[in-house]
Amino acid sequence: MDRQSIDLDWERQRAWVEIDRAALRHNVRQIQALLAPATKIMAVVKADAYGHGAIEVARTLVAAGVEWLAVATVPEGIELRSAGIVAPILVFGAIDTEIQIRAIVQWDLQPTIYTIAQATIISKTIAQLVPSTPLKVHLKLDTGMSRLGANWQEAVAVYREVDSLPLMAIDSLYSHLATADDLDPTVMELQIDRFERASAAIKAAGYTLPILHLANSAGILVGKRLHYQLVRPGLILYGLYPAPQFESAIDLRPVLSVKARITQVRDITAGTGVSYGYRFIADRDCQIAVAEIGYADGVPRRLTDRMQAIVRGQLVPQIGTITMDRMMLDVTQIPDLQVGEVVTILGADGTSQIGADDWAKELGTISWEILCGFKPRLPRISTN
């Protein structure tokens, strides 16, 4: 039996990630309902679509009416093109080497421009290619993120220089919000003001403004004034809220679930230690189950004795140190549990649910990091 046939026979997998395409389509419809008819969606599918599987997610999004896609790196864009996806793809990350630029042109990707020097390198490299056609580029301004981007106060000068370069066509002007998910709007309002002042200055200099975009997931939910001609949803596509105050603004459904199979069930007596270091010692007779998933799959080891799983719709505690490939659960309350039964590690079963936000809160991090943490050895299985 070859590797492919093993992967396809997911019913026998020890653990996997399930992707609910119906939930993804639902979330797209919810976002579309918030937008003006002329505003388009640029779906952020970087980092393997936040751990969901970029190719299948991108296909589903495009079929649902999403017009643009965005990735962080050139290889991420190439992966989508190699899968036959033809939607426009913006690359957020730094592009400044000849091999990157040639790949951008070859695979019909669109780069982010953030300095005149970088734009000049791109223009010169394109000129060496045959045939040479204008490349659509996107000028990014730093309005307060203090990350990648041209200084917003120099927007006119940078725009003029990039526009004057041969074989370059500025398709959009954009920036990124640093605090749109905060209750205090002060910094966000400052960034909005800077972005609008910069775009107004470019227009006053005699240029026809290209596509404008500023809103990330939180920015979309703040209100229509941030939507411009394009919005860039990320987290909300995958069914999670960027902050609690947005939960009433949109109805989202989590797209990702993580499941594993039970490979052993055993009884232990009071005083028995479980797993490395005996961080858990049973204070009573109990029954434990071994679930075939561990920190090598993306379950943080720091969740040891701090997480639950769902078995037959009931929440059960994880016990003992989470190991590389498996974890133990206290299943005393589940009668006649059998080897091969499915455990929900993240997701819903019956009326019980465990979300990425629950893990993030326990670990003092954010749900984005949880989603991106599930490793490639967990097959992504699409449903619905």
Secondary-structure map with pairings?
Blueprint: H1 3-8, E1 15-20, H2 21-34, E2 40-44, H3 46-51, H4 54-63, E3 68-71, H5 74-82, E4 89-91, H6 98-106, E5 110-113, H7 116-127, E6 135-142, E7 150-151, H8 155-164, E8 168-174, H9 186-204, E9 211-213, H10 217-222, E10 230-231, E11 256-268, E12 273-274, E13 280-281, E14 286-291, E15 308-311, E16 314-319, E17 327-330, E18 342-349, E19 352-354, H11 356-363, H12 367-372, E20 380-383
Parallel strand pairs: 1-20, 2-3, 2-10, 3-4, 4-5, 5-6, 6-7, 6-8, 8-9
Antiparallel strand pairs: 1-11, 11-14, 11-18, 12-13, 14-17, 15-16, 15-18, 16-17, 18-19
Shape estimate: elongated
Radius of gyration: 24 Å
For the termini, the CA-CA separation is 28 Å
**CATH topology assignment of the largest domain:** TIM Barrel
Helix content: 25-40%
Taken as a percent bin, the fraction of beta residues is 25-35%
Q: What's the story with the biggest beta sheet?
A: 9 strands, parallel
Question: How many DSSP E strands?
Answer: 20
Number of helices: 12
Find the CATH superfamily of the largest domain.
Alanine racemase
Q: Which CATH class of the largest domain is shown? A: Alpha Beta
Give the class from helix and strand content and strand pairing: alpha/beta
**Integer average pLDDT:** 95
Could you name the ranges where pLDDT drops below 50 across 5 or more consecutive residues? none
Q: At CATH's second level, what is the architecture of the largest domain?
A: Alpha-Beta Barrel
Number of domains: 2
